[in-house]
Design a protein that fits this description.
There is one protein chain. The chain is α/β, with parallel strands linked by helices and 559 residues long. 43% of the residues lie in helices and 12% in strands. It contains 18 helices and 12 strands. The protein has helices spanning 6-10, 20-34, 49-58, 69-80, 102-114, 121-124, 128-141, 157-172, 176-179, 196-203, 224-236, 259-272, 308-321, 393-429, 453-459, 464-470, 473-497, 532-554, and strands spanning 92-93, 150-154, 185-190, 211-214, 240-247, 280-284, 329-333, 346-350, 434-436, 446-450, 502-511, 517-523. The strands form 2 sheets. The protein has a 7-stranded mixed sheet, sandwiched between helices. The protein has a 5-stranded mixed sheet with strand order 1-11-12-10-9. Helix 2 (20-34) packs parallel to helix 4 (69-80), helix 11 (224-236) packs parallel to helix 12 (259-272) and helix 14 (393-429) crosses helix 18. The termini are far apart. The protein binds pyridoxal-5'-phosphate. Residues 96, 156-158, 194, 196, 250-251, 284, 286-287, 333, 346 line the site of pyridoxal-5'-phosphate.
Length: 559
């Protein structure tokens, strides 16, 4: 056999002698030799500050001669993959990342290898069509006309929020593209908003001081009456209420706001004040879109035989999120939860594709995009995308995930996570010293409060809402310190003893009546392999660990 030249090996022209699968197989073999236990939640190996710096130093040299593929791949995996979370592991309950569907990752890898630029059809070939296909599926899920709605893939949930704010600004302020953002522009966000909403306001020049927060009600949905008061007073003050970003499944509680109620509120305001623009409603549904897979489900006959409590939760949440059709835009992250795709895989969905004209680069001859030969393409989303080069891999990966799991597969997956979360909440709340913070949540996250023994009498019979309402600032501080110390200690013990479940911590889950942030431990199962066995293990481990911590460390100040 003729030996391949180094150039042909690294830049193969023929897929028959292609090396990608060989290199991937080599990489898979290394990973399987490192990850011996299939339940591990992270890839083993040192991952600490010192080791981190030494890896940076080790790899900060540009070698004058190339090294063999095996050596390169081996070195990279052995050094850089240590400590990486394994999203498919049933022991990882760390955050809302997604276990990747291997069909989706294969399509993603091969698309990256071909290197598809979703700029325009001249650069993407037919690959751009996948973006339209996914967008059509998403239109169907919220029951809007495929000719009306349109989605574009972008670089994360953060970008979906950025797009919404940019479109809102351009709709409410004419000439903004040339003159910049006026000083009297305002946006409304929600009390439990993801921080990316404020980041978008900062990056777009709105300024975070121009964001007004709609307070949350007891079940964490955003208060429509208070929102109305805020908007009315802004308009009366001569401000531009450019838009509002609603909850479409918050990070911790999966709360979905009353989208239809907000749409009707905006209609009322436009009529009452005879506004020359309609404040844009965006729903941050990058997590909450998942419930749309229940579109068309026969909840009455329940063919999947989902248990009644879970079915009821799903039904309520589905009814809330199905109102996305009354919003102007919304976001979808296939790299979160049940989405099954490699990151980033986000779609900014507009329910009125004409809205994209507001951010067109070419319509007003704002900018000339001659570098990308737009005039020779029949489809050119780059006319309105923020990015010029966008990878073709993401829409293809999403399509692969949707097709390989199917609607039924997604439904079963989501129902399983919700049912097991209910079970975890039930089991852990029966243990003294543990309180569920997000008891009204319909989703698959558990926010847990750990109570130190000295506060047990005070907090013993109260639910979390009462604790939040009644506690002194001093007691909340005590609770926060206790939880932080426990998490830090437990994390270390877990790493040393190779204990299984890996969960997370939030320093600011919610604010007390005095405006003090209350911390909570966060359990975010996302693996399709999660089961009752792991629920029980998590409960048992937590129970034991808290006992040891309380007895040996907390009161002895050994921490
Ligand atoms: C509700 C919500 N919106 C936006 C984001 C930001 O998404 P990304 O990290 O993909 O930019 C997150 C991230 O978790 C989120 O939970």
């Amino acid at each position: 056999m003729k030996l391949m030249s180094r150039t042909s090996e690294i830049f193969p022209l023929n897929y028959k002698y292609h090396n990608l699968s060989k290199i991937c197989l080599f990489a898979e073999n290394i990973l399987s030799s490192i990850i011996k236990d299939r339940e591990l939640a992270r890839i083993p190996g040192s991952c600490n500050n010192d080791n981190y710096s030494s890896i940076i130093n080790k790899f900060s040299t540009f070698p004058s001669k190339g090294v063999s593929s095996e050596k390169v791949v081996g070195k990279i995996i052995r050094n850089f993959f240590c400590g990486v979370p394994l999203w498919r592991s049933p022991n990882l309950q760390y955050n809302v990342g997604s276990p990747v569907n291997v069909v989706s990752s294969a399509i993603s890898a091969i698309s990256q290898d071909v290197n598809i630029y979703n700029i325009n059809t001249g650069l993407s070939g037919n690959a751009l069509a996948a973006e339209h296909a996914v967008s059509n599926i998403l239109c169907d899920l919220i029951d809007i006309d495929r000719d009306k709605g349109m989605g574009i893939f972008t670089f994360g949930g953060t970008a979906t929020n950025l797009y919404s704010m940019k479109i809102a600004i351009n709709k409410s302020c004419t000439d903004v593209s040339k003159n910049g953002v006026p000083k009297n522009i305002k946006f409304l966000i929600t009390e439990d908003a993801h921080f990316s909403h404020a980041v978008a306001a900062n990056w777009l020049g709105i300024g975070t001081n121009n964001l007004l927060t709609i307070p949350a009600t007891k079940n964490r949905t955003s208060d429509t009456h208070l929102a109305e008061e805020i908007m009315e007073s802004l308009i009366q003050n001569g401000d531009i209420v450019s838009g509002i970003i609603l909850n479409g499944g918050t990070t911790y509680d999966h709360t979905v706001d009353d989208i239809l109620g907000y749409s009707q509120l905006i209609d009322r305001l436009v009529n009452k004040f005879n506004l020359g623009y309609r404040p844009h409603i965006h729903v941050d549904s990058v997590i909450g879109w998942s419930w749309l897979v229940f579109s068309g489900y026969d909840f009455g006959n329940n063919p999947l035989k989902i248990d009644s409590d879970t079915l009821n939760k799903i039904h309520i949440q589905y009814q809330r999120i199905s109102k996305l059709k009354y919003a102007d835009s919304w976001g979808v992250d296939f790299h979160k939860g049940i989405g099954g795709c490699p990151v980033p895989c986000s779609v900014f969905m507009s329910n009125n594709k004409l809205d994209f004209l507001n951010i067109s680069k070419n319509s007003e001859q704002l900018t000339k995009t001659h570098q990308i030969a737009t005039e020779f393409s029949f489809d050119s989303p780059s006319d309105f995308t923020l990015e010029t080069s966008r990878s073709g891999a993401a829409p293809l990966a999403a399509l692969a995930a949707l097709n390989s799991l199917g609607k039924q597969g997604y439904r079963k997956y989501l129902a399983k996570l919700i049912s097991l979360t209910t079970s975890f909440k039930h089991k852990i709340s029966n243990v003294v010293g543990f309180k569920i913070a997000n008891i009204t949540s319909l989703g698959f996250v558990t926010m847990l409060i750990l109570v130190p023994r000295e506060l047990n009498n005070l907090f013993g019979n109260k639910d979390f809402f009462e604790i939040m309402q009644d506690s002194s600032a001093e007691d909340i501080e005590k609770l926060n310190i206790y939880m932080k110390c426990f998490y830090k200690w437990d994390n270390q013990i877990r790493a040393e003893k190779k204990l299984t479940c890996i969960y997370s911590y939030s320093s600011s889950y919610i604010k007390s009546k005095d405006g003090i942030s209350i911390s909570a431990l966060k359990f975010y199962p996302v693996s399709p392999h999660f089961s009752e066995k792991y629920v029980d293990q998590t409960v048992e481990n937590l129970k034991k660990q808290k006992q040891i911590f309380d007895k040996n460390y907390w009161n002895n100040s050994k921490i």
